[in-house]
Write a structure and sequence with these properties.
The protein is of the alpha/beta class and 675 residues long. The protein contains 19 helices and 22 strands.
Length: 675
């Protein structure tokens, strides 16, 4: 079985009329073509969230990274609606952007591209716009015609601007710089429209490079008390929904978005079938309505357009009606944010309710923090957190998540003979923190609704991250408190337990070893006062530390041991039931003496180190009083001290250098504790 063909479609501003028509026509064309289509939805124009976000560039900046996720796919061909990627406006940026996909055949829409990249489909912007401007001049006799252009260096915008300039010059009408303002093809052009009015007090007409910006022109004319079509003429380009909804209807140029999308699909199929394809111009059509001053002309609002208007209003109601449940789903996810399975289960169920035939959630290992003017920090792998098919879904979570690497593919594999599957991917982010993408199989009419849901999902993911971080902080605090409690139980000179710590440790050992034999012992450093008086307190501290480490080495790391006074140590060790308790204790005391002899042989100190030990055997019982046991051990210590050296001083000392024996038991004894 051969590899099923897969086409990627890059498109942005999916809520706007022109891109929506392209999406719809591509979707309809491919629905029965037995190939898979993967739409990657990119940046939204500022008009979509104007007033909701104070910094639109941050919002756009996040969306631009969507197309970098294409590295995880295995596309056979790309259709790039480049004109809708409205932030990639500089020529150098366009080249850099397209170079990322130079190894994949491309069909570029709404913009020109180098032949080595692919072919392009672009509307006949020039002739359409020139016909519009000449209509204003020749039919209405307007002279003071100003122009609201699209972005500089955008090919569509540049061609339309050139048509305006040529029409004006050819008809003997001069054009000054103040007669042109540059917008971004969105409604967010209030500043530019006001500038045109301020710098051109005798305006006859405003020509807008697209219908989206014309909506703002209408609004500002109304604020100024000007009636469009009577006091001033307004024209647009695109023939979007607003053009036939507006009062009066907008005179405009239709660039036949649906035809462009369908033609892109046809050329894509020709290419996949081995046919040679070439760049094309899509014809435009001039629509005359009341905004230019015409009345009773050849194209006014028709019954068909009235029906389209009613359909559009109904579609908008349905979209926002569905969107109301988004905040409810967000609230539910937030309530269970600490429970990974419950959190993603609610997310999957929400997608099913919204008509997703299938979906996959891909998250980066750690959120990508995007700051303007800095490069992306994209993970090499994506984790598939859950996948859904129909009413069924599987939650993998982070621990079991299948990893997807470069070129491995983001959508499910399908049989060659299946009808097309069409997927839409949405970016998931909140603020500057980007989490990954949601890839879902939905009907093209639900694209806008699903976009609103993904904004909610991004917020939910951010909340889950904060909750997880809060939980980790709480656990870290508990761990720190435990360490603080431990440090309160530690003797700073020797690093052993202090009196409080060793008493608690012995109590715990006795409680959990009920009925087992054990030995409690008290160790005492011989002649500490003599060491202090003769060699100084630094040497006294050294000797205390050495005695403690010597006892630790002999008793083992698992047995409680602490310093309970100036030169006294208290400890307990367990005795196995199959051992002779008295013989085991004798052996242990003998090991203490042997360790002291080894130390004295190699220490290089001008004194002998001696440790006297008193030991008492007992049976663990939760009612045992440690003080009583210590009393018996102390009695044995008194006996042991009678056989200690009379003096610690040596007459001669042979230095042996570094002390490194039995895991460097005493190698750190000359450290900072010698003060």
């Amino acid at each position: 079985m051969g590899k099923r063909k897969k086409i990627g479609v890059f498109v942005a501003n999916a809520h706007m009329d022109h891109p929506k028509k392209i999406i719809r026509s591509i979707y309809r064309y491919f629905i029965d073509k037995k190939v898979d289509i993967h739409f990657l939805l990119g940046t939204e124009s500022g008009s979509f969230y104007h007033g909701l976000n104070d910094d639109s560039t941050d919002f756009d900046y996040q969306y631009l990274s969507m197309f970098d996720y294409a590295r995880f796919e295995d596309f056979d061909l790309l259709i790039i609606a480049y004109g809708s990627l409205n932030t990639f406006q500089q020529l150098s940026d366009k080249k850099s952007f397209l170079d990322k996909f130079k190894d994949i055949p491309c069909i570029i829409l709404e913009d020109n591209c180098p032949p080595e990249i692919g072919i392009n489909l672009i509307a006949d912007n020039y002739n359409g716009m020139k016909q519009c401007v000449e209509h204003l001049i020749k039919v209405h006799g307007y002279k003071d015609i100003v122009y609201l252009s699209g972005p500089a260096n955008n090919d569509d915008a540049a061609e339309r601007l050139q048509a305006y300039l040529d029409a004006m010059i050819e008809n003997g009408l001069p054009v000054d710089d103040v007669m042109i303002e540059y917008g971004d093809f969105s409604e967010d052009v209030d500043k530019q429209v006001y500038a045109l009015f301020e710098n051109n007090p005798h305006i006859d007409a405003i020509v807008s490079a697209n219908d989206e910006m014309s909506t703002t022109v209408y609004q500002i004319c109304e604020r100024k008390g000007l009636k469009v079509g009577k006091d001033i003429a307004v024209t647009g380009f695109d023939n979007m929904r607003f053009a036939w909804c507006a009062k009066p209807g907008l005179t405009t140029v239709e660039q036949k978005s649906s035809h462009m999308g369908r033609r892109a699909g046809e050329l894509a199929m020709d290419f996949l079938n081995g046919k040679e394809i070439h760049s094309e111009r899509i014809p435009t059509e001039f629509f005359v309505r009341g905004s230019c001053g015409c009345t009773g002309t050849k194209r006014t609002t028709s019954d068909r357009e009235e029906n389209k208007m009613e359909h559009a209003i109904e579609e908008m109601r349905e979209t926002w009606g569905q969107a109301i449940s988004g905040p409810m789903a967000l609230r539910e996810m937030i309530q269970v944010s600490e429970d990974e399975t419950a959190f993603y289960t609610l997310m999957a169920q929400m997608l099913i309710r919204q008509g997703a035939k299938s979906s996959r959630l891909y998250l980066q290992e750690t959120p990508m923090v995007n700051v303007k003017h800095s490069p992306w920090v994209m993970s090499d792998k994506l984790d598939m957190i859950f996948e859904q098919q129909g009413a069924n879904f599987t939650i993998y979570g982070r621990e079991r998540a299948p990893e997807v690497g470069s070129g491995e593919g983001l959508i499910p594999k399908h049989d060659e003979n299946e009808d097309s599957h069409l997927y839409f991917s949405y970016l998931l982010f909140d603020g500057s923190r980007q989490y990954g993408i949601l890839t879902t199989e939905v009907y093209y009419k639900d694209v806008s609704t699903m976009y609103l849901y993904t904004l909610e999902i991004g917020t939910a993911l951010h909340f889950r991250e904060l909750t997880k971080r809060s939980t980790e902080d709480r656990e870290r605090m508990l761990e720190q408190n435990a360490r603080l409690n431990l440090s309160a139980s530690i003797d700073p000179l020797t690093g052993l337990l202090n009196r409080r710590g060793v008493n608690e440790a012995i109590g715990r050992l006795i409680a959990i070893n009920e009925g087992q034999k054990a030995c409690i012992f008290i160790g005492d450093l011989d002649h500490l006062k003599q060491i202090n008086d003769t060699f100084g307190h630094g040497e006294g501290d050294f000797a205390i530390n050495a005695a403690g480490q010597l006892l630790r080495r002999v008793v083992g790391d698992e047995s409680p041991l602490g310093r309970i006074g100036g030169d006294e140590f208290l400890g307990v060790f367990l005795i196995d039931d199959d051992q002779d308790a008295e013989e085991e204790v004798k052996r242990w005391v003998s090991d203490v003496k042997l360790s002291a002899e080894i130390f004295n042989t190699v220490s290089g100190k001008p004194y002998y180190l001696g440790v006297s030990v008193g030991a008492h055997i007992f049976t663990c019982n939760s009612g045992t009083a440690i003080k009583e046991l210590m009393k018996y051990a102390d009695e044995e210590l008194y006996v042991a001290k009678k056989s200690r050296r009379a003096s610690v001083a040596r007459e001669t000392v042979e230095s042996t250098g570094a002390f490194d024996i039995d895991d460097a038991l005493f190698e750190d004894l000359d450290g900072e504790d010698d003060e």
